[in-house]
Amino acid sequence: MNVRLRHDAIVRSLRRNGTSTIDALADEVGASRRTVLRDISALRDEGYVIHADVGRGGGLQLDPQSVQTNARLTVPEVFALLISVAAMRAAGNLPFSELADAGLAKIEKALPSDKVKDLRAFLECLHIGQLSPLQDLSDMSKMDPDLLPAFEAAFLGRHFIRFDYRDAKGRKTRREIEPQAMLVLPPLWYLVGWDPMRADFRHFRMDRISNPEVLAGTHFRRRHVPFEDDVCPYSALKAENRTSRL
Amino acid sequence: MNVRLRHDAIVRSLRRNGTSTIDALADEVGASRRTVLRDISALRDEGYVIHADVGRGGGLQLDPQSVQTNARLTVPEVFALLISVAAMRAAGNLPFSELADAGLAKIEKALPSDKVKDLRAFLECLHIGQLSPLQDLSDMSKMDPDLLPAFEAAFLGRHFIRFDYRDAKGRKTRREIEPQAMLVLPPLWYLVGWDPMRADFRHFRMDRISNPEVLAGTHFRRRHVPFEDDVCPYSALKAENRTSRL
DNA sequence: CAAATGGTGACATATTTTGGCACCATTTTG
DNA sequence: CAAAATGGTGCCAAAATATGTCACCATTTG
Protein backbone atom coordinates (compact mmCIF):
# COMPACT_ATOMS: atom_id res chain seq x y z
CA MET A 1 0.00 0.00 0.00
CA ASN A 2 1.06 3.49 -0.90
CA VAL A 3 2.32 5.87 1.76
CA ARG A 4 -0.35 8.38 0.94
CA LEU A 5 -3.12 5.84 1.02
CA ARG A 6 -1.86 4.49 4.29
CA HIS A 7 -1.85 7.92 5.85
CA ASP A 8 -5.40 8.46 4.72
CA ALA A 9 -6.40 5.07 6.01
CA ILE A 10 -4.91 5.84 9.40
CA VAL A 11 -6.66 9.19 9.63
CA ARG A 12 -9.94 7.63 8.63
CA SER A 13 -9.54 4.83 11.11
CA LEU A 14 -8.84 7.27 13.90
CA ARG A 15 -11.77 9.43 12.89
CA ARG A 16 -14.01 6.43 12.76
CA ASN A 17 -13.00 4.54 15.83
CA GLY A 18 -12.20 7.51 17.98
CA THR A 19 -9.29 5.70 19.52
CA SER A 20 -6.98 2.95 18.41
CA THR A 21 -3.64 1.40 19.23
CA ILE A 22 -0.58 1.29 17.07
CA ASP A 23 -0.71 -2.47 16.75
CA ALA A 24 -4.34 -2.38 15.72
CA LEU A 25 -3.58 0.24 13.11
CA ALA A 26 -0.61 -1.72 11.85
CA ASP A 27 -2.81 -4.73 11.46
CA GLU A 28 -5.52 -2.71 9.78
CA VAL A 29 -3.36 -1.04 7.17
CA GLY A 30 -1.12 -4.04 6.67
CA ALA A 31 2.12 -2.45 7.74
CA SER A 32 4.53 -2.92 10.57
CA ARG A 33 4.32 -1.25 13.93
CA ARG A 34 7.38 0.79 13.14
CA THR A 35 5.95 2.05 9.89
CA VAL A 36 2.73 3.11 11.56
CA LEU A 37 4.74 4.98 14.15
CA ARG A 38 6.62 6.74 11.37
CA ASP A 39 3.29 7.54 9.70
CA ILE A 40 1.90 8.97 12.91
CA SER A 41 4.98 11.10 13.21
CA ALA A 42 4.55 12.31 9.62
CA LEU A 43 0.89 13.09 10.22
CA ARG A 44 1.82 15.08 13.27
CA ASP A 45 4.29 17.00 11.16
CA GLU A 46 1.47 17.73 8.75
CA GLY A 47 -0.54 19.30 11.53
CA TYR A 48 -2.70 16.48 12.76
CA VAL A 49 -3.00 16.63 16.52
CA ILE A 50 -2.83 13.04 17.69
CA HIS A 51 -3.05 12.46 21.41
CA ALA A 52 -1.34 9.40 22.79
CA ASP A 53 -2.18 7.69 26.05
CA VAL A 54 0.24 5.12 27.24
CA GLY A 55 -0.41 2.02 29.26
CA ARG A 56 -3.39 -0.24 29.54
CA GLY A 57 -6.49 1.24 27.97
CA GLY A 58 -4.31 3.76 26.23
CA GLY A 59 -4.08 4.43 22.55
CA LEU A 60 -4.03 7.09 19.90
CA GLN A 61 -6.69 9.70 19.52
CA LEU A 62 -7.14 12.21 16.75
CA ASP A 63 -8.12 15.69 17.74
CA PRO A 64 -11.10 16.24 15.46
CA GLN A 65 -10.61 19.99 15.23
CA SER A 66 -7.04 19.73 14.14
CA VAL A 67 -7.46 19.43 10.41
CA GLN A 68 -9.90 21.11 8.08
CA THR A 69 -9.13 20.42 4.46
CA ASN A 70 -11.26 20.77 1.41
CA ALA A 71 -11.88 17.63 -0.54
CA ARG A 72 -9.89 18.24 -3.68
CA LEU A 73 -10.40 15.13 -5.70
CA THR A 74 -8.10 14.19 -8.50
CA VAL A 75 -9.61 13.20 -11.79
CA PRO A 76 -8.83 9.48 -11.39
CA GLU A 77 -10.47 9.55 -8.00
CA VAL A 78 -13.55 11.13 -9.47
CA PHE A 79 -13.52 8.48 -12.16
CA ALA A 80 -13.33 5.79 -9.54
CA LEU A 81 -16.31 7.28 -7.77
CA LEU A 82 -18.25 7.46 -10.99
CA ILE A 83 -17.42 3.91 -11.86
CA SER A 84 -18.40 2.79 -8.40
CA VAL A 85 -21.77 4.35 -8.72
CA ALA A 86 -22.26 3.03 -12.21
CA ALA A 87 -21.31 -0.43 -11.05
CA MET A 88 -23.69 -0.24 -8.16
CA ARG A 89 -26.44 0.91 -10.40
CA ALA A 90 -25.74 -1.96 -12.75
CA ALA A 91 -25.62 -4.44 -9.89
CA GLY A 92 -28.94 -3.30 -8.60
CA ASN A 93 -30.74 -0.07 -8.30
CA LEU A 94 -30.45 0.95 -4.73
CA PRO A 95 -32.64 3.86 -3.78
CA PHE A 96 -29.64 6.09 -3.40
CA SER A 97 -28.70 6.10 -7.02
CA GLU A 98 -30.60 9.27 -7.69
CA LEU A 99 -28.81 11.18 -5.03
CA ALA A 100 -25.56 9.72 -6.15
CA ASP A 101 -26.46 10.81 -9.64
CA ALA A 102 -26.97 14.34 -8.46
CA GLY A 103 -23.57 14.31 -6.85
CA LEU A 104 -22.01 12.83 -9.91
CA ALA A 105 -23.62 15.37 -12.15
CA LYS A 106 -21.85 18.06 -10.17
CA ILE A 107 -18.58 16.24 -10.46
CA GLU A 108 -19.09 15.75 -14.15
CA LYS A 109 -19.77 19.42 -14.58
CA ALA A 110 -16.53 20.27 -12.88
CA LEU A 111 -14.52 17.91 -15.01
CA PRO A 112 -12.85 18.93 -18.24
CA SER A 113 -15.09 17.78 -21.05
CA ASP A 114 -12.56 15.54 -22.74
CA LYS A 115 -12.20 13.56 -19.55
CA VAL A 116 -15.92 13.05 -19.32
CA LYS A 117 -15.90 11.75 -22.85
CA ASP A 118 -13.12 9.33 -21.99
CA LEU A 119 -15.09 8.16 -19.02
CA ARG A 120 -18.24 7.51 -20.95
CA ALA A 121 -16.32 5.55 -23.55
CA PHE A 122 -14.63 3.62 -20.83
CA LEU A 123 -17.83 2.73 -19.05
CA GLU A 124 -19.50 1.70 -22.26
CA CYS A 125 -16.57 -0.50 -23.01
CA LEU A 126 -16.81 -2.15 -19.61
CA HIS A 127 -20.55 -2.63 -19.98
CA ILE A 128 -20.90 -1.42 -16.44
CA GLY A 129 -23.63 1.02 -17.18
CA GLN A 130 -24.71 4.25 -18.69
CA LEU A 131 -24.14 7.58 -17.11
CA SER A 132 -27.46 8.97 -18.27
CA PRO A 133 -29.75 10.08 -15.49
CA LEU A 134 -31.66 7.24 -14.02
CA GLN A 135 -35.34 6.96 -14.53
CA ASP A 136 -37.09 8.50 -11.62
CA LEU A 137 -37.55 5.86 -8.98
CA SER A 138 -37.75 7.80 -5.81
CA ASP A 139 -39.01 11.27 -5.26
CA MET A 140 -36.73 12.60 -2.63
CA SER A 141 -36.80 16.12 -3.89
CA LYS A 142 -39.53 17.24 -1.55
CA MET A 143 -38.10 15.44 1.41
CA ASP A 144 -36.70 17.42 4.32
CA PRO A 145 -32.94 17.04 3.87
CA ASP A 146 -32.49 16.53 7.58
CA LEU A 147 -34.95 13.68 7.71
CA LEU A 148 -32.89 10.75 6.56
CA PRO A 149 -29.90 11.48 8.77
CA ALA A 150 -32.26 12.07 11.66
CA PHE A 151 -34.07 8.82 11.00
CA GLU A 152 -30.85 6.89 10.77
CA ALA A 153 -29.48 8.50 13.91
CA ALA A 154 -32.69 7.78 15.76
CA PHE A 155 -32.77 4.23 14.49
CA LEU A 156 -29.21 3.55 15.42
CA GLY A 157 -29.42 5.13 18.84
CA ARG A 158 -32.89 3.69 19.38
CA HIS A 159 -34.12 7.14 20.20
CA PHE A 160 -37.59 8.46 19.58
CA ILE A 161 -37.97 10.89 16.75
CA ARG A 162 -40.32 13.87 16.75
CA PHE A 163 -41.56 15.75 13.72
CA ASP A 164 -44.38 17.80 12.25
CA TYR A 165 -46.63 15.84 9.95
CA ARG A 166 -49.07 17.20 7.42
CA ASP A 167 -51.59 14.53 6.45
CA ALA A 168 -53.51 14.14 3.22
CA LYS A 169 -56.19 16.56 4.38
CA GLY A 170 -53.65 19.20 5.26
CA ARG A 171 -53.98 18.77 9.02
CA LYS A 172 -50.78 19.30 10.90
CA THR A 173 -49.79 17.27 13.94
CA ARG A 174 -46.66 16.86 15.96
CA ARG A 175 -45.71 13.18 16.16
CA GLU A 176 -43.35 11.26 18.35
CA ILE A 177 -42.51 7.76 17.22
CA GLU A 178 -40.01 4.95 17.34
CA PRO A 179 -38.47 4.71 13.90
CA GLN A 180 -38.76 1.15 12.70
CA ALA A 181 -38.39 0.93 8.98
CA MET A 182 -38.24 2.70 5.70
CA LEU A 183 -40.73 1.71 3.04
CA VAL A 184 -40.11 2.47 -0.60
CA LEU A 185 -43.21 2.48 -2.74
CA PRO A 186 -41.84 4.08 -5.84
CA PRO A 187 -41.89 6.98 -6.16
CA LEU A 188 -42.85 7.54 -2.55
CA TRP A 189 -40.84 6.94 0.56
CA TYR A 190 -42.44 6.18 3.87
CA LEU A 191 -41.17 6.25 7.39
CA VAL A 192 -42.67 3.48 9.47
CA GLY A 193 -42.82 3.84 13.21
CA TRP A 194 -44.54 2.77 16.37
CA ASP A 195 -46.61 5.53 17.87
CA PRO A 196 -46.70 4.97 21.63
CA MET A 197 -49.45 7.59 22.07
CA ARG A 198 -51.77 5.70 19.76
CA ALA A 199 -50.26 2.32 20.67
CA ASP A 200 -50.12 1.44 17.03
CA PHE A 201 -47.88 1.42 14.01
CA ARG A 202 -48.11 4.38 11.71
CA HIS A 203 -46.49 5.24 8.46
CA PHE A 204 -45.66 8.66 7.20
CA ARG A 205 -44.88 9.95 3.74
CA MET A 206 -41.42 11.33 4.00
CA ASP A 207 -42.18 14.39 1.93
CA ARG A 208 -44.84 15.40 4.45
CA ILE A 209 -42.52 15.35 7.41
CA SER A 210 -40.82 18.50 8.59
CA ASN A 211 -38.60 19.62 11.45
CA PRO A 212 -37.39 16.19 12.48
CA GLU A 213 -35.82 16.07 15.90
CA VAL A 214 -34.09 13.18 17.57
CA LEU A 215 -35.00 12.83 21.23
CA ALA A 216 -31.64 11.88 22.59
CA GLY A 217 -32.85 11.24 26.12
CA THR A 218 -35.27 8.52 25.08
CA HIS A 219 -34.75 4.90 24.35
CA PHE A 220 -36.68 1.94 22.98
CA ARG A 221 -35.92 -1.69 22.31
CA ARG A 222 -35.19 -2.62 18.75
CA ARG A 223 -36.65 -5.70 17.18
CA HIS A 224 -34.08 -7.34 14.99
CA VAL A 225 -36.29 -9.33 12.65
CA PRO A 226 -39.66 -7.73 13.01
CA PHE A 227 -41.60 -10.16 10.89
CA GLU A 228 -41.08 -13.41 9.12
CA ASP A 229 -42.13 -14.96 5.86
CA ASP A 230 -45.71 -15.16 4.85
CA VAL A 231 -46.90 -12.83 7.53
CA CYS A 232 -48.97 -10.32 5.66
CA PRO A 233 -49.22 -6.90 7.23
CA TYR A 234 -50.73 -5.37 4.12
CA SER A 235 -54.31 -6.49 4.43
CA ALA A 236 -55.38 -2.88 4.56
CA LEU A 237 -54.40 -2.60 0.95
CA LYS A 238 -56.50 -5.48 -0.26
CA ALA A 239 -59.64 -3.50 -0.89
CA GLU A 240 -57.83 -1.16 -3.20
CA ASN A 241 -56.06 -3.75 -5.23
CA ARG A 242 -57.05 -4.33 -8.81
CA THR A 243 -55.16 -6.52 -11.19
CA SER A 244 -55.55 -7.31 -14.81
CA ARG A 245 -53.71 -9.76 -16.95
CA LEU A 246 -53.13 -9.27 -20.64
CA MET B 1 13.49 17.88 -3.73
CA ASN B 2 10.37 15.94 -2.88
CA VAL B 3 8.13 14.62 -5.64
CA ARG B 4 5.15 16.51 -4.34
CA LEU B 5 7.02 19.71 -3.91
CA ARG B 6 8.35 19.37 -7.41
CA HIS B 7 4.88 18.84 -8.80
CA ASP B 8 3.70 21.94 -7.00
CA ALA B 9 6.68 23.87 -8.28
CA ILE B 10 5.97 22.81 -11.85
CA VAL B 11 2.33 23.78 -11.63
CA ARG B 12 3.23 27.11 -10.08
CA SER B 13 5.81 27.76 -12.74
CA LEU B 14 3.35 26.98 -15.51
CA ARG B 15 0.73 29.15 -13.85
CA ARG B 16 3.16 32.00 -13.47
CA ASN B 17 4.88 31.90 -16.84
CA GLY B 18 1.96 30.74 -18.89
CA THR B 19 4.25 28.65 -21.03
CA SER B 20 7.52 26.86 -20.52
CA THR B 21 9.66 24.11 -21.98
CA ILE B 22 10.64 20.87 -20.39
CA ASP B 23 14.30 21.79 -20.27
CA ALA B 24 13.51 25.10 -18.63
CA LEU B 25 11.37 23.39 -16.03
CA ALA B 26 14.03 20.77 -15.42
CA ASP B 27 16.54 23.50 -14.81
CA GLU B 28 14.13 25.41 -12.59
CA VAL B 29 13.19 22.57 -10.29
CA GLY B 30 16.65 21.01 -10.34
CA ALA B 31 15.72 17.72 -11.90
CA SER B 32 16.45 15.97 -15.14
CA ARG B 33 14.50 16.32 -18.32
CA ARG B 34 13.26 12.77 -17.95
CA THR B 35 11.97 13.36 -14.45
CA VAL B 36 10.11 16.47 -15.47
CA LEU B 37 8.47 14.53 -18.28
CA ARG B 38 7.39 11.91 -15.79
CA ASP B 39 6.05 14.63 -13.53
CA ILE B 40 4.07 16.14 -16.38
CA SER B 41 2.63 12.76 -17.10
CA ALA B 42 1.66 12.33 -13.46
CA LEU B 43 0.04 15.75 -13.35
CA ARG B 44 -1.98 14.91 -16.42
CA ASP B 45 -3.15 11.75 -14.73
CA GLU B 46 -4.30 13.89 -11.85
CA GLY B 47 -6.45 15.91 -14.18
CA TYR B 48 -4.25 18.83 -15.07
CA VAL B 49 -4.74 19.64 -18.72
CA ILE B 50 -1.33 20.53 -20.06
CA HIS B 51 -1.16 21.45 -23.71
CA ALA B 52 2.04 20.67 -25.51
CA ASP B 53 3.23 22.39 -28.65
CA VAL B 54 6.14 20.86 -30.42
CA GLY B 55 8.80 22.50 -32.48
CA ARG B 56 10.38 25.88 -32.29
CA GLY B 57 8.39 28.29 -30.17
CA GLY B 58 6.59 25.36 -28.67
CA GLY B 59 6.33 24.38 -25.03
CA LEU B 60 3.99 23.36 -22.28
CA GLN B 61 0.93 25.29 -21.30
CA LEU B 62 -1.40 24.70 -18.38
CA ASP B 63 -5.09 24.97 -19.06
CA PRO B 64 -6.17 27.25 -16.22
CA GLN B 65 -9.69 25.85 -16.11
CA SER B 66 -8.56 22.30 -15.67
CA VAL B 67 -7.44 22.50 -12.11
CA GLN B 68 -10.59 23.46 -10.29
CA THR B 69 -12.48 20.29 -9.55
CA ASN B 70 -14.41 22.06 -6.90
CA ALA B 71 -17.43 19.84 -6.86
CA ARG B 72 -19.34 21.06 -3.85
CA LEU B 73 -21.49 18.20 -2.76
CA THR B 74 -24.26 18.21 -0.22
CA VAL B 75 -23.94 15.83 2.66
CA PRO B 76 -26.67 13.49 1.41
CA GLU B 77 -24.95 13.38 -1.93
CA VAL B 78 -21.71 12.47 -0.29
CA PHE B 79 -23.56 9.82 1.65
CA ALA B 80 -24.97 8.40 -1.54
CA LEU B 81 -21.56 8.31 -3.12
CA LEU B 82 -20.10 6.61 -0.10
CA ILE B 83 -22.83 4.03 -0.07
CA SER B 84 -22.28 3.36 -3.71
CA VAL B 85 -18.63 2.75 -3.23
CA ALA B 86 -19.17 0.65 -0.15
CA ALA B 87 -21.66 -1.46 -2.03
CA MET B 88 -19.34 -1.84 -4.96
CA ARG B 89 -16.49 -2.83 -2.78
CA ALA B 90 -18.67 -5.39 -1.09
CA ALA B 91 -19.89 -6.73 -4.40
CA GLY B 92 -16.37 -7.57 -5.46
CA ASN B 93 -13.09 -5.82 -5.51
CA LEU B 94 -12.97 -4.07 -8.81
CA PRO B 95 -9.63 -2.52 -9.59
CA PHE B 96 -11.05 0.88 -8.85
CA SER B 97 -11.78 0.31 -5.24
CA GLU B 98 -8.41 1.57 -4.15
CA LEU B 99 -8.77 4.80 -6.04
CA ALA B 100 -12.31 5.21 -4.89
CA ASP B 101 -11.06 4.69 -1.39
CA ALA B 102 -8.64 7.53 -1.79
CA GLY B 103 -11.42 9.76 -3.02
CA LEU B 104 -13.60 8.79 -0.12
CA ALA B 105 -10.81 9.42 2.29
CA LYS B 106 -10.64 12.96 1.04
CA ILE B 107 -14.35 13.41 1.32
CA GLU B 108 -14.32 12.00 4.80
CA LYS B 109 -11.40 14.16 5.74
CA ALA B 110 -13.20 17.24 4.53
CA LEU B 111 -16.40 16.52 6.35
CA PRO B 112 -16.93 18.00 9.77
CA SER B 113 -16.47 15.28 12.33
CA ASP B 114 -20.07 15.30 13.46
CA LYS B 115 -21.14 14.63 9.91
CA VAL B 116 -18.72 11.74 9.73
CA LYS B 117 -20.45 10.35 12.78
CA ASP B 118 -23.81 10.75 11.08
CA LEU B 119 -22.41 9.03 8.08
CA ARG B 120 -21.18 6.09 10.07
CA ALA B 121 -24.54 5.78 11.73
CA PHE B 122 -26.25 5.98 8.39
CA LEU B 123 -24.14 3.28 6.85
CA GLU B 124 -24.40 1.07 9.86
CA CYS B 125 -28.11 1.45 9.83
CA LEU B 126 -28.34 0.52 6.21
CA HIS B 127 -26.09 -2.35 7.00
CA ILE B 128 -24.25 -1.93 3.79
CA GLY B 129 -21.06 -2.00 5.68
CA GLN B 130 -18.27 -0.13 7.28
CA LEU B 131 -16.23 2.24 5.27
CA SER B 132 -12.85 0.74 5.70
CA PRO B 133 -12.30 -2.98 6.01
CA LEU B 134 -15.75 -3.75 4.86
CA GLN B 135 -17.48 -6.28 6.98
CA ASP B 136 -20.31 -8.57 6.21
CA LEU B 137 -23.05 -7.37 4.00
CA SER B 138 -25.59 -9.74 5.48
CA ASP B 139 -28.57 -10.04 3.22
CA MET B 140 -27.27 -7.87 0.42
CA SER B 141 -24.45 -10.26 -0.28
CA LYS B 142 -26.78 -13.19 -0.54
CA MET B 143 -29.17 -11.32 -2.73
CA ASP B 144 -29.50 -12.48 -6.31
CA PRO B 145 -27.71 -9.78 -8.29
CA ASP B 146 -30.40 -9.87 -10.93
CA LEU B 147 -33.16 -9.21 -8.47
CA LEU B 148 -33.12 -5.47 -8.05
CA PRO B 149 -32.87 -4.69 -11.76
CA ALA B 150 -35.63 -7.18 -12.40
CA PHE B 151 -37.76 -5.58 -9.72
CA GLU B 152 -37.20 -2.16 -11.14
CA ALA B 153 -37.93 -3.26 -14.67
CA ALA B 154 -41.04 -5.06 -13.56
CA PHE B 155 -42.20 -2.12 -11.52
CA LEU B 156 -41.63 0.43 -14.23
CA GLY B 157 -43.19 -1.73 -16.90
CA ARG B 158 -45.97 -2.88 -14.59
CA HIS B 159 -45.09 -6.44 -15.45
CA PHE B 160 -45.44 -9.43 -13.20
CA ILE B 161 -42.27 -10.86 -11.79
CA ARG B 162 -41.66 -14.57 -11.22
CA PHE B 163 -39.04 -16.10 -8.95
CA ASP B 164 -38.14 -19.03 -6.75
CA TYR B 165 -38.66 -18.42 -3.08
CA ARG B 166 -37.24 -20.39 -0.20
CA ASP B 167 -39.19 -19.71 2.97
CA ALA B 168 -38.02 -19.86 6.58
CA LYS B 169 -38.68 -23.59 6.73
CA GLY B 170 -36.67 -24.23 3.59
CA ARG B 171 -39.65 -24.92 1.37
CA LYS B 172 -39.22 -23.78 -2.17
CA THR B 173 -42.03 -22.30 -4.23
CA ARG B 174 -42.24 -20.53 -7.53
CA ARG B 175 -44.01 -17.21 -7.08
CA GLU B 176 -45.54 -14.82 -9.51
CA ILE B 177 -46.37 -11.41 -8.14
CA GLU B 178 -46.93 -7.78 -8.93
CA PRO B 179 -43.98 -5.92 -7.51
CA GLN B 180 -45.27 -3.15 -5.29
CA ALA B 181 -42.67 -1.97 -2.89
CA MET B 182 -39.34 -2.46 -1.28
CA LEU B 183 -39.19 -2.52 2.49
CA VAL B 184 -36.01 -1.82 4.36
CA LEU B 185 -35.95 -3.16 7.89
CA PRO B 186 -32.28 -2.92 8.65
CA PRO B 187 -30.51 -5.19 8.05
CA LEU B 188 -33.07 -6.99 5.96
CA TRP B 189 -34.57 -6.00 2.66
CA TYR B 190 -37.99 -7.16 1.60
CA LEU B 191 -39.78 -7.23 -1.69
CA VAL B 192 -43.48 -6.56 -1.29
CA GLY B 193 -45.92 -7.76 -3.88
CA TRP B 194 -49.47 -8.71 -4.58
CA ASP B 195 -49.84 -12.42 -5.16
CA PRO B 196 -52.81 -12.94 -7.49
CA MET B 197 -52.81 -16.71 -6.88
CA ARG B 198 -53.31 -16.20 -3.19
CA ALA B 199 -55.20 -12.93 -3.68
CA ASP B 200 -53.16 -11.36 -0.98
CA PHE B 201 -50.11 -9.23 -0.34
CA ARG B 202 -46.94 -11.08 0.42
CA HIS B 203 -43.48 -9.97 1.33
CA PHE B 204 -40.29 -11.78 0.55
CA ARG B 205 -36.86 -11.53 2.03
CA MET B 206 -34.70 -10.50 -0.86
CA ASP B 207 -31.91 -12.87 0.04
CA ARG B 208 -34.30 -15.81 -0.30
CA ILE B 209 -35.34 -14.99 -3.83
CA SER B 210 -33.62 -16.61 -6.78
CA ASN B 211 -33.97 -16.74 -10.56
CA PRO B 212 -36.09 -13.63 -10.95
CA GLU B 213 -37.80 -13.32 -14.28
CA VAL B 214 -39.83 -10.42 -15.62
CA LEU B 215 -42.96 -11.54 -17.42
CA ALA B 216 -42.95 -9.07 -20.23
CA GLY B 217 -46.28 -10.15 -21.67
CA THR B 218 -48.18 -9.38 -18.50
CA HIS B 219 -49.51 -6.15 -17.16
CA PHE B 220 -51.12 -4.89 -13.99
CA ARG B 221 -52.52 -1.57 -12.92
CA ARG B 222 -50.31 0.42 -10.68
CA ARG B 223 -51.73 2.13 -7.68
CA HIS B 224 -50.15 5.52 -7.42
CA VAL B 225 -50.65 6.03 -3.73
CA PRO B 226 -51.02 2.52 -2.44
CA PHE B 227 -52.00 3.54 1.00
CA GLU B 228 -52.70 6.74 2.74
CA ASP B 229 -51.95 8.27 6.06
CA ASP B 230 -52.99 6.56 9.22
CA VAL B 231 -53.72 3.29 7.52
CA CYS B 232 -51.85 0.75 9.54
CA PRO B 233 -50.81 -2.38 7.71
CA TYR B 234 -48.47 -3.46 10.46
CA SER B 235 -50.85 -4.96 12.95
CA ALA B 236 -48.97 -8.22 12.71
CA LEU B 237 -46.11 -6.54 14.48
CA LYS B 238 -48.10 -5.27 17.42
CA ALA B 239 -47.73 -8.37 19.52
CA GLU B 240 -43.97 -8.20 19.38
CA ASN B 241 -43.62 -4.56 20.15
CA ARG B 242 -42.09 -3.51 23.42
CA THR B 243 -41.21 0.03 24.27
CA SER B 244 -39.52 1.60 27.20
CA ARG B 245 -38.96 5.21 27.97
CA LEU B 246 -36.05 6.40 30.06
C1' DC C 1 5.49 -6.55 39.54
C1' DA C 2 3.58 -7.76 34.87
C1' DA C 3 1.23 -6.43 30.98
C1' DA C 4 -0.06 -3.01 27.74
C1' DT C 5 1.05 0.83 25.45
C1' DG C 6 3.72 4.76 22.98
C1' DG C 7 8.35 5.89 21.36
C1' DT C 8 13.44 5.77 19.44
C1' DG C 9 17.60 4.13 17.17
C1' DA C 10 20.18 1.11 14.16
C1' DC C 11 20.73 -1.55 10.26
C1' DA C 12 19.85 -4.66 6.47
C1' DT C 13 16.63 -5.19 2.81
C1' DA C 14 12.78 -3.82 -0.54
C1' DT C 15 10.85 -0.64 -3.32
C1' DT C 16 10.61 3.50 -5.75
C1' DT C 17 12.56 7.31 -7.93
C1' DT C 18 15.84 9.35 -10.76
C1' DG C 19 19.21 10.31 -14.45
C1' DG C 20 21.27 9.19 -18.63
C1' DC C 21 20.92 7.57 -23.03
C1' DA C 22 19.22 6.29 -27.49
C1' DC C 23 15.47 7.07 -30.35
C1' DC C 24 11.09 8.68 -32.51
C1' DA C 25 7.55 12.24 -34.19
C1' DT C 26 6.25 16.75 -35.16
C1' DT C 27 6.83 21.53 -36.17
C1' DT C 28 9.15 25.69 -37.30
C1' DT C 29 12.74 28.18 -39.56
C1' DG C 30 16.34 29.11 -42.78
C1' DC D 1 14.78 20.10 -48.04
C1' DA D 2 17.74 20.13 -43.85
C1' DA D 3 18.53 21.43 -39.39
C1' DA D 4 17.11 22.73 -35.03
C1' DA D 5 13.82 22.77 -31.37
C1' DT D 6 10.55 20.58 -29.01
C1' DG D 7 7.56 16.87 -26.75
C1' DG D 8 7.51 11.93 -25.86
C1' DT D 9 8.86 6.74 -24.80
C1' DG D 10 11.56 2.67 -23.42
C1' DC D 11 15.31 0.79 -20.93
C1' DC D 12 18.53 0.14 -17.30
C1' DA D 13 21.63 0.93 -13.58
C1' DA D 14 22.40 3.91 -9.77
C1' DA D 15 20.61 6.66 -6.09
C1' DA D 16 17.26 7.66 -2.79
C1' DT D 17 13.70 6.40 0.07
C1' DA D 18 10.62 3.38 2.54
C1' DT D 19 10.05 -0.67 5.25
C1' DG D 20 10.67 -4.50 8.55
C1' DT D 21 13.06 -6.44 12.41
C1' DC D 22 14.99 -6.17 16.64
C1' DA D 23 16.54 -4.38 20.92
C1' DC D 24 15.44 -1.24 24.23
C1' DC D 25 13.31 2.67 27.03
C1' DA D 26 9.39 5.17 29.57
C1' DT D 27 4.92 5.38 31.36
C1' DT D 28 0.52 3.76 33.07
C1' DT D 29 -2.88 0.47 34.84
C1' DG D 30 -4.35 -3.27 37.63
UniProtKB/TrEMBL annotation, chains A, B:
Domain HTH deoR-type: 3-58
MF-aspect GO terms: DNA-binding transcription factor activity
Keyword vocabulary terms for this entry: Transcription, Transcription regulation
Claim: Transcription is one of the keywords in the record: yes
Pfam family, one: HTH_11
Signal peptide (from-to): none
InterPro entries for this protein: CBASS_pafABC_assoc_protein (IPR051534), DeoR_HTH (IPR001034), HTH_11 (IPR013196), WH-like_DNA-bd_sf (IPR036388), WH_DNA-bd_sf (IPR036390), WYL_dom (IPR026881)
Protein name: WYL domain-containing protein
